[in-house]
Amino acid sequence: MIIFPAVDLKNGKAVRLKQGKADQVSVFSDDPVQMAKHWQSLGAEYLHLIDLDGAFEGKSVNAEIVKEICRKLDIPVQLGGGIRSEEIADFWLNLGVTRIIIGTMALENFALFEKICKKYPGRVGVSLDVQGKKLKTRGWVEDSGKEIDEILPKLQNAGCAFIIYTDIERDGMHSELNFAEIERLAKLCPLPLIAAGGVSTMESVKKLLPLAKNSSLQGIVSGRAIYEGTLDFNEAIDFIKKN
Q1: Does residue 198 have a pLDDT over 80?
Q2: pLDDT bracket for residue 79 (50, 70, 90)
């Protein structure tokens, strides 16, 4: 099981939001490149980058930072946020990002999503961001009218490489994960599954590790918890390695 440290980019800084709300911002670093290097130095296997400017505004102001992170790190980088066209997907994947995370496009323009999956096999995943039972789009501000179970088979057939599941109501709130739903999805979904939203303590890690051994669960994304210390990143990695 991989722990993906999250570096969320907004106006050139590393931040975290509460429940994905643009006005609920905590700035954790003015130097996202250094922050990315910090997580690598602590043993991160993969970095999780979110371009919040792209997600909210549909355009990025963080390209040079992302390029520098990819250049300075020896570990792979996955990036999401505002990837709603083939041109933007091309841009990030040619910039040095290992794989991209698509949300809105997969729910609103499925034909284009399928085309990009075929163009970049193994490099395109989907973020399924849920509030209640409904999937949200466009930076979590719009309701897609769709639910996870109806979209999963389509994503697999299109060539989606992995899924990130986020419970929006728990994201950045120091609450626990929605374990029941993660377990259900991990057993239902044949694609590698990454859980996000509510990874707040070692209990999250200890509870999910057995599931990762017997299902499609591949890892967890943690942001606020590892920045504020409610989850010790080193302790979590050591626990996974020993068990």
Answers
A1: no
A2: very high
Kindly name the residue from 8, 51, 53, 171 that is annotated as catalytic: 8
- We report the CATH number of the domain holding residue 145 as 3.20.20.70
Cα 225 to Cα 228: distance, rounded to the nearest angstrom: 5
Nearest to 98 by CA among 51, 46, 32, 58: 46
Q: Which domain holds residue 37?
A: 2-242
The enclosing H or E element of 5 equals: strand 2-10
CA distance 209 to 243: 8
Mean pLDDT of all residues in 59-73:
91
Mark whether 129 is an active-site residue.
yes
Instruction: State the pLDDT at residue 195.
Output: 92
Helix ranges, the chain (H): 32-41, 52-57, 63-72, 86-95, 104-108, 110-119, 148-158, 179-188, 202-213, 224-228, 233-242
Per-residue pLDDT of 105-140, as tens digits, reads 998 899 999 999 999 999 999 999 887 666 766 555
pLDDT attached to residue 172: 47
> Of the residues 51, 129, 167, 171, which is catalytic?
129
Percentage above 70 pLDDT, the chain = 86
Q: How many domains does the chain fold into?
A: 1
